[in-house]
Amino acid sequence: MYQQQQQQMQQQQQMGALQARFNAIDTDRSGTITVQEIQTAYQQFQFSYQSAKLLLQGISDKAFIDMTNFPLFDQYINSFWTAFSQVGQGMPKINSQQVLQALQMLRFNFDPNILNALVMKYDKDRSGVDFGEFLSICSYLLVVLKLMGKFDPQKRGFLQIDTNGLASLAMWFL
Ligand SMILES: [Ca+2]
């Protein structure tokens, strides 16, 4: 009985912490987190509205995050942050080699040439990759993986699409 109570209390505490993290991002207290709110949450970093939109799309099929999919959102952000801080050993910026290491830790198994090209895209001033830029790269890759799942349901590992298919796929990145 005591153990059960303890477990219940722990669960409640975890839920409380999760709800607190949700509320910190849901600044207008609407019960949903919008793209704008995601961007604002990371505004101290190089993190654009476009990247916030990719992050949301990579995680949710809805146009917002609510308490049903926030645990997943929270889990992703935590794992991205953990990988970023581990390879950078707490430094505010990491280099392209460290980005590749962190992405490997996160099991984003892409060709290093592609990943380096992505780093060049997001680290425009070549000053090193801050957490926002890293989050942008992760968000982009999340959407790519999501699209593979959608357009390659048989998991053949490649897409065969016509012009209309490309037009519809490319819209995800607009
Ligand atoms: Ca809101």
Automatic annotation (TrEMBL):
UniProt entry tagged with the keyword Membrane: no
Database matches in InterPro entries: EF-hand-dom_pair, EF_Hand_1_Ca_BS, EF_hand_dom
Pfam families, sorted: EF-hand_5 (PF13202)
MF annotations from Gene Ontology: calcium ion binding
Keyword field: Calcium
UniProt KW Isomerase keyword: no
Domain EF-hand, first and last residues per copy: 13-48, 110-144
Name listed for the protein in its UniProt record: Programmed cell death protein-like protein
Organism the protein comes from: Hexamita inflata
